[in-house]
Amino acid sequence: MQKNIIKPGELIHVIHRFERDMKRHFVGEVECVKDCVVRASGYAFVVDDPRTHEFVKRPDRRVRLISLTDGELIINVLPPSVRLEDVRYAEQDHRLYVTDGREWRMDLKEFGWN
Question: Is the whole model's pTM more than 0.90, yes or no?
Answer without folding.
Answer: no
